[in-house]
């Protein structure tokens, strides 16, 4: 718990103090947001606002994670314990790798938009290729690094609150790994693009992400206290490195919370694709290593709704040549109906909070009932 508190506090302070410095740097370099002309007219005032603020979130998360582990190692040494056991875990490092890798893809996308002064950065194929390379690398590595009990950071079984009886390895060892890589990359691509689509209003994605990461802090701590390595029984969780996963989630939660101070309406900086792709990847990574893959659909329900609104809009328009929503993603639809931006953001935060609360309720209810 000490490490979790240090991680959350350190990342919060780093983004609170570091973001205004980054804003000044971006203004000096004239790295401002390019706003599409076919969007809500109220967004035209945002043209030139510094973007790529996700770099601060990612950087603060990585530094806070390192500081928390440094603190844990010193604390264990002071108590005469093995300080090496307070070091980073495979699960935590792989989630951070996924976050940083996708953030790098987003950074390339943001930089192209800024340097060429257009609303389009990487092409869809280029973005998916970058996401695929990072996602495949993560998916292959996350099935390795077994601990002394033989538990790897992820498993080939599909999971809801824990691993289910549906194991992709039933198709064979090699086929099982291939199917898992495809499944993991679907989750990663869907979640990162969902976060990317949600990041269209001041503070919307940052606020929703803060709640989701807070949920994963609780899930990590709970699964640590009920882990099969220490607590035997039908209700225990076969999750490796639970507390370190909670530490990663706490670092992300604090970083998003601190960034929100500067990103809330009227935003002084946007996270850009650097932030949204990185945060979406982090959520997907946490879902995979905590064995909560389908539960993440509930926890990140707002991202799912935003992504579905785009799919519905495109599908209906291609088949009928008419628009189902006035504009997609969904938050722009309500803006076009006349809602104030801040009203849309707060109400969507409420929806995100309800999804998170419902997801945590499902997680706890499954434990009360017992493993099935």
Question: Please, could you describe this protein's structure?
Answer:
It is built from 12 helices and 2 strands. It has helices at residues 2-29, 54-78, 90-116, 124-141, 173-198, 204-225, 242-263, 272-289, 295-299, 301-320, 330-336, 341-369, and strands at residues 157-159, 163-167. A two-stranded antiparallel sheet has the order 1-2. Helix 2 (54-78) crosses helix 7 (242-263), helix 2 crosses helix 8 and helix 5 packs across helix 10. The radius of gyration is 20 Å and the shape is globular. The protein starts with a helix and ends with a helix. The mean pLDDT is 90.
Task: Map the helices and strands.
Blueprint: H1 2-29, H2 54-78, H3 90-116, H4 124-141, E1 157-159, E2 163-167, H5 173-198, H6 204-225, H7 242-263, H8 272-289, H9 295-299, H10 301-320, H11 330-336, H12 341-369
Antiparallel strand pairs: 1-2
Helix pairs in contact: 1-2, 1-7, 2-3, 2-7, 2-8, 3-4, 3-7, 3-8, 4-5, 5-8, 5-10, 6-7, 6-8, 6-12
Features:
372 residues, mainly alpha, 2 strands, 66% helix, globular
**Helix coverage percent:** 55-70%
Into which percentage range does the β-strand content fall?
Answer: under 5%
Radius of gyration: 20 Å
Number of domains: 1
Distance between the termini: 29 Å
Overall outline: globular
Largest sheet: 2 strands, antiparallel
User: How many beta-strand segments?
Assistant: 2
Number of helices: 12
The helix/strand order is: HHHHEEHHHHHHHH
Structural class: mainly alpha
Strand order of the largest sheet: 1-2
Question: Could you tell me the mean pLDDT?
Answer: 90
Low-confidence stretches: none
């Amino acid at each position: 718990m000490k490490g979790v508190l240090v991680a959350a506090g350190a990342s919060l302070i780093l983004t609170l103090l570091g973001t205004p410095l980054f804003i000044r740097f971006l203004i000096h370099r004239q790295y401002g947001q390019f706003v599409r002309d076919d969007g809500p007219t109220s967004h035209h005032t945002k043209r030139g606002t510094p973007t790529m603020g996700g770099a601060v979130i990612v950087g603060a998360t990585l530094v806070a994670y390192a500081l928390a582990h440094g603190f844990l190692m010193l604390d264990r040494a002071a108590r005469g314990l093995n300080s090496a056991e307070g070091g980073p875990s495979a699960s935590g490092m792989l989630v951070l790798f996924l976050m940083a890798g996708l953030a790098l893809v987003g950074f390339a996308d943001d930089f192209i938009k800024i340097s060429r002064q257009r609303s389009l950065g990487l092409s869809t194929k280029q973005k998916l290729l970058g996401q695929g390379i990072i996602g495949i690398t993560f998916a292959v590595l996350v099935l390795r690094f077994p601990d002394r009990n033989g538990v790897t950071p992820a498993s080939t079984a599909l999971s809801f609150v824990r691993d289910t009886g549906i194991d992709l390895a039933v198709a064979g060892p090699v086929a099982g790994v291939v199917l898992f890589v495809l499944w993991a990359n679907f989750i990663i691509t869907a979640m990162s693009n969902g976060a990317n689509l949600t990041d269209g209003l001041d503070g919307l994605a940052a606020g929703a992400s803060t709640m989701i990461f807070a949920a994963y802090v609780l899930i990590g701590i709970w699964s640590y206290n009920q882990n099969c390595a220490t607590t035997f029984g039908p209700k225990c969780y076969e999750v490796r490195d639970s507390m370190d996963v909670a530490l990663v989630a706490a670092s992300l939660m604090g970083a998003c919370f601190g960034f929100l101070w500067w990103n809330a309406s009227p935003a002084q900086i946007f996270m850009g694709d650097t932030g949204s792709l990185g945060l979406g990847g982090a959520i997907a990574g946490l879902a995979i290593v905590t064995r909560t893959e389908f539960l993440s659909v509930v926890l990140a329900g707002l991202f799912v709704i935003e992504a579905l609104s785009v799919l519905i809009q495109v599908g209906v328009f291609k088949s009928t040549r008419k628009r189902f929503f006035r504009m997609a993603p969904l938050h722009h639809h309500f803006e076009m109906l006349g809602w104030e931006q801040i009203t849309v953001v707060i109400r969507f935060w409420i929806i995100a909070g309800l999804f998170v609360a419902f997801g945590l309720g499902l997680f706890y209810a499954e434990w009360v009932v017992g493993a099935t």
